[in-house]
Amino acid sequence: MDKSISEAWIAAAFTAPEKRTLDQQEVLKVSDQLLEELEPANLIVIGTPMYNYGMPAALKAWIDQVIRIGRTFSFDLARGEQPIESILTGKTLAILSSSGEGGFELGGVHAAMNYLDPHIVTASKLLGVSEHHVIRIEYQEFGDDRHQQSIQSAHAAIPALVQQLTQNMGA
């Protein structure tokens, strides 16, 4: 079965569920399975490397499968210049990323070349994400003290984030 977005996938996604043919249902099967996992989640954790300043193809393919009209967002031209609105709400996103270089954080020396975090954060709004956190390990290609420091910082940030999320989610 083809798991990529295709003309048939788009046609099926834009067909009302009760009007989908068996073939259209089959085309959306992977998407439906992924959404069954995602929809009830309060927390989405994405662990990903930064490849060539952006996201790996596999992550982009997942995003394309889970952002879907009628499931995660609605489209209504009556809303004017903002016709797209998330259906899902109240989700938190944690991005755990790695990169060969460093300085990709907001205000960092390479922030303008970071196409990973902004893409994920923007897309995640259509998954109902209203809060996001980024923990990264950088300078892997250098393997120097900066890399070791980023590992230590990431390891220290995880328990603090877990504690914060636990408190926020009332667990």
Secondary-structure topology with pairs:
Layout: H1 7-13, H2 22-27, H3 29-38, E1 43-49, H4 57-66, E2 73-75, E3 84-86, E4 91-98, H5 116-124, E5 129-137, H6 145-168
Parallel strand pairs: 1-4, 4-5
Antiparallel strand pairs: 2-3
List descriptors.
single chain, 171 residues, alpha/beta, Rossmann fold, 3-stranded parallel sheet, two-stranded antiparallel ribbon, 18% strand, elongated
Could you characterize what this model shows?
This protein is an alpha/beta fold. It has a single domain (39-168), classed as Flavodoxin domain (Rossmann fold). The protein is 39% helix and 18% strand. The protein is built from six helices and five strands, in the order αααβαβββαβα. The chain has helices at 7-13, 22-27, 29-38, 57-66, 116-124, 145-168; strands at 43-49, 73-75, 84-86, 91-98, 129-137. It has a three-stranded parallel beta sheet with strand order 1-4-5. It has a two-stranded antiparallel sheet with strand order 2-3. It is elongated, with a radius of gyration of 18 Å. It starts with 6 loop residues before the first helix and ends with a helix. The mean pLDDT is 95.
Radius of gyration, CA atoms, in whole angstroms: 18 Å
What percentage of amino acids are in beta strands?
15-25%
Work out the count of structural domains. Answer: 1
Structural class: alpha/beta
Low-pLDDT parts are none
Question: Any idea what the shape is?
Answer: elongated
